[in-house]
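Complex 561.
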Amino acid sequence: MKNDSGRTIVIVGGVAGGASAATRARRCNEDARIIMYEKDSYVSFANCGLPYYIGGEIEERDDLLVARPELFRNRFNIEVHTLCEVTAIDRAAQTVSVQNRQTGVTTLQSYDRLILAVGASPIVPPISGADAPNVFTLRNLEDTDRIKQFVKEKKPQRAVVVGAGFIGLEMVEQLRRGGIQTAVVELMEQVLPPLDAEMAHQIQQALEQHDVELHLGDGLAGFRVADAMATGVKLNSGGVLDADLVILGIGVRPNTKLAEQAGLELGPMRGIRVNEHMQTSDPYIYAVGDAVEYQHGVLGTPARVPLAGPANRAGRLAGQHAATDEAPPMAPVLGTAIVRVFEKTAAMTGLSVKLARKVGREARAAVVVAKHHAGYFPGGEAMTLKLIYEPTTGKVLGAQGVGGAGVDKRIDVIATAIHFGATVGDLAGLDLAYAPPYGSAKDPVHMAAFAACNDLAGLTPLCPLDKDLSGRQIVDVRTDAEVSKMRLPNAKHIPVDQLRERLEELDASRPTVTVCHSGLRAHVAARILRQHGFDDVADLTGGMFVRQHAKPAEIIRGEGD
Ligand SMILES: Cc1cc2nc3c(=O)[nH]c(=O)nc-3n(C[C@H](O)[C@H](O)[C@H](O)COP(=O)(O)OP(=O)(O)OC[C@H]3O[C@@H](n4cnc5c(N)ncnc54)[C@H](O)[C@@H]3O)c2cc1C
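Predicted structure with flavin-adenine dinucleotide bound:
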């Protein structure tokens, strides 16, 4: 490679990955000429903040503009050209064609290093009506302005959000905040498809509590259109949902056209293939962000992870490498993600049980229901934390959390542990900060890890939360009051504190599952039974609290629930 510090670095795309690459390149190489092209009007805006501006939670539009062209010029000596689209790459000549969208004039710009940070585009199904002025996707500030203006001027009463992924649900929350009656259509049987179903079910409840109408396992078949406006969303199931406003949030496709036309290789997931330095199949061209495939930290295979964290980190590393030919490698990504849905937070990292099953990876799960800080300290908010691990090695494969405060912290701790290849035993030994307003001496992360360790050691095997319990002796060790509210069919009810005295009511030779509210007392019960000659005893992980979300149809609800 040429070692020309006065090199020209051209960056295509000026938002998450591109802006990170540009500024890092400058910090590493004062002599380089750095040019950034952005086809739209704005660089370095906060994509992730767009829903909150639409809903009014972020009040000032200017707050979304993280860094303006003047800052890039004055502080970083970076040439920024907005409304300039790079339309072609000539790899042999090391030039890009740049079309000025205001003048229509195309010019050539040479490069020594080129960084593609071109992002992804929202998927719009090729259905008649999808181009109606009240059917929107949300990717950039222009989309945001259109939606915001439409809401202000037309005052829509009913909205339909198609797609219950992260952006879809953020929009649902913000539309409801504005008092708009909102329905969600999702092809999968659950919201937040990357989560396991019982975790997502808790988010569904939160949506319903906020009067959001859910149409799960149903898809967008078409639009009802009148006077060129969409007036309804037709469902695969045959119904039509009235709509004054439609948001399509059904995923994104990587912008690979430029790379493909230049003959750069794509990977198996149809993103741009890159190495650990974010170099494409042409070492003078880098690619970062939503357009590329990263290495998945658990699967070890290429994965598309269209999230801001990886885009920013990859941009930074590519910028450094482009500027100096040296940089640390990009670490594998885990798909760590988080979303707020009204009062609830849902977060995940690594593999779900669902994904593990899909890729044929053996996985077990321990689920705990815990307060985010010490129970005796006022204001503790409940969370469900699911820890997913490999049975043979105990390696942590993933985690999911749903609840109130503190879910973010637990998922980040576990993501960190996965990054370093931790086992559930390592998690059990983590020395975490504790004082009553912040956590518990035995943190939910520890509790989940303890349960996983007990499971793997055979001390108390965990019964999967969605397992068919028929044929097993089910021992429900909750109190009378708890059982009267919510029952499992065919369970023998013996409160844990009476278990030792009432052992003769049970059959020690039968496979047995102990059940309580969250799994903790069931663990105690399982230990009692095991030490009284019951050889095959498992504890229903997550207890009735999670079972009601995993198998809601099975639960018999009583008075006062
Ligand atoms: C509404 C919304 C909310 C989100 N919330 C979160 C969140 O909470 N957490 C999270 O982790 N992620 C979130 N994301 C995802 C995150 O914003 C993206 O993963 C990240 O921005 C990707 O960075 P990027 O640089 O690859 O692409 P982008 O940031 O999209 O930038 C790509 C830029 O390239 C420009 N471009 C494309 N082609 C050309 C060309 N040929 N010439 C010139 N310019 C070009 C585009 O106009 C675009 O501005 C959200 C995304 C959206 C849309």
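Residues 289 and 304 are 9 Å apart (CA to CA).
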